[in-house]
Amino acid sequence: MTNNLTLALPVGTTLDRFINRQQEAFPYAKGELSQLLRDIALASKIINREINRAGLIDITGALGSSNIQGEAQQKLDMIANIRFIRALVNGGEVVGILSEEDDEIIQTGNYNAKYVVAMDPLDGSSNIDVNVSIGTIFSIYRRVSDIGSPAVEDDFLQGGRKQVAAGYILYGSSTIMVYTTGKGVNAFTYENSLGEYFLSHADIKMPEDGKIYSVNEAYFEEFTNPVKEFIQDMRKHSGCMARYIGSLVGDFHRNLLKGGIYMYPPTRKAKEGKLRLLYECYPLAFVIEQAGGLSSDGMQSLLDIVPESIHQRNIVYLGSKNQLTQLQKKLEKYHTFLMEQIKAGL
């Protein structure tokens, strides 16, 4: 059902005005969450500027170091990380930050702040050299630790259902900020000449059916049988198409608007999955479920997974209701078969 708030908004609504109006939906909020979303938007504007001039100054390519995940850090990874941390520290509404680029929780010194943020400051940054869309992913929680103290791991290990807001920024042919506070999903496109985000996609509803599947088929032989069967079914179905650019935010955003499914199944190198639960899986699952789609690890919603560590990886399936339901049935049937084999001692 269309959000009544969205229907009442005039054309040309800025992100700032939209945030102010939505604040009324949170009886416990006194403006802190609204300011936090503005801080994230501000940082994204700065990153947008850096990306747009990446070919003109020496900020592309590898940095020569690795993050906690063992992945080579790009120069833009660190630039984005610094920009977001600085914006969140100066904004004053965040006590702790969990970033893909840092081993430990970043303490902001704002010990009276009520929120913590988990983020992937620049997902897909290795694609910047070839001008492919990249993005930022973020997740916001109300802290559970005592006000006046530093942030602790428990602030971030609350589980996906405890997110108060989540979203992403896509830096592509245009820069778009998409987020939810649990009241539907809205997207805002950045207007460079005015320096403002404007509401461009109100109350997004993901199509229940889709013909796009996004998966790295180079690993096809390593996938489990139900995933292989699902992909083969998609290949045979008239009009279905594979679309995969290897930039999570770009692939996700396309499928969110057009309908489809994104998959990162287990492989030999990543038996537990590759994507990070707290700052990739949870926020995108929150967004897609708010838009009417589904998320899964093959057995349950990603939002229902109980986190065990702050940099935990997970298997990911995100998609339109019909596609994900079809895949889920295959995965459940396969799981039941395996359990029966184990019980029989085979």
From TrEMBL:
Coiled coil: none annotated. Keywords: Carbohydrate metabolism, Cytoplasm, Hydrolase, Magnesium, Metal-binding. Residues 206-329 form the Fructose-1-6-bisphosphatase class 1 C-terminal domain. It catalyses: beta-D-fructose 1,6-bisphosphate + H2O = beta-D-fructose 6-phosphate + phosphate. Residues 14-201 form the Fructose-1-6-bisphosphatase class I N-terminal domain. It is found in: Cytoplasm. Mg(2+) 2 binds at D120, D123, E280. Its main location: cytoplasm. Binds 2 magnesium ions per subunit. GO terms for molecular function: fructose 1,6-bisphosphate 1-phosphatase activity. Pathway: Carbohydrate biosynthesis; Calvin cycle. Its EC number is 3.1.3.11. Its cofactor is Mg(2+). It is an enzyme of class 3 (hydrolase). The keyword Metal-binding applies. Mg(2+) 1 binds at E100, D120, L122. Substrate binds at D123, G124, S125, S126, N216, Y244, K274. It comes from the Bacteria. Pfam families: FBPase, FBPase_C. Homotetramer. Belongs to the FBPase class 1 family. This is Fructose-1,6-bisphosphatase class 1. It comes from Arcicella aquatica.
